[in-house]
Specification:
Elements: H1 2-28, H2 36-66, E1 70-74, E2 84-87, E3 92-97, E4 100-111, E5 116-120, E6 125-126, E7 134-139, E8 146-147
Antiparallel strand pairs: 1-2, 1-7, 2-3, 3-4, 4-5, 5-6, 7-8
Helix pairs in contact: 1-2
């Protein structure tokens, strides 16, 4: 079902974009039976809807991304039993052991219908796998003190 949902989103972009181009062509190039102002109005409406749909998708992606911001208590980090991973709002992260910063880098969130992944260090690592395996976390924008043994 989620692949169908992704297809619907692509179809909405396609239909709105094609409609905007069609209205623009009917306004200035193709002879239309409708008055030019109606074709131009159709172009403005389709372009506005396309822009609103795009900004809404960007906003929803950022909200989903911010749900991962917080502190993760790492269980498998090399030579460190009590390391904490802190994902920050500016898409950077820090691994700390007490007050000592061990590692810094960048992270980004990716989703697509039925999956979501937090990548670390330009897609080299994933949150929840390998050295970034965690058991407890405290997210800033979700309910605190969640427990998870699954890879996120």
């Amino acid at each position: 079902m989620s692949a169908f949902g992704e297809l619907i989103i692509v179809a909405i972009y396609f239909v709105l974009g094609l409609s905007a181009i069609g209205c623009l062509l009917k306004t200035f190039i193709i002879k239309a039976k409708l008055p030019k102002f109606l074709c131009l109005l159709g172009f403005v409406v389709c372009t506005s809807l396309l822009f609103l749909f795009w900004t809404n998708n960007k906003r929803n992606h950022r909200i989903a991304e911010l749900e991962n911001v917080g502190v993760y208590y790492l269980t498998n980090y090399t030579n460190c039993d009590s390391c904490k991973l802190t994902l920050k709002e500016d898409n950077s992260y820090e691994v700390t052991n007490g007050t000592k910063v061990i590692e810094t880098g960048n992270w980004h969130y990716e989703s697509g219908g039925d999956y979501w992944i937090v990548y670390m260090n330009d897609n080299e690592d994933q949150l929840g796998n390998g050295r970034f395996t965690y058991e407890e976390y405290n997210n800033r924008y979700k309910a605190a003190n969640n427990k998870s043994t699954e890879a996120k």
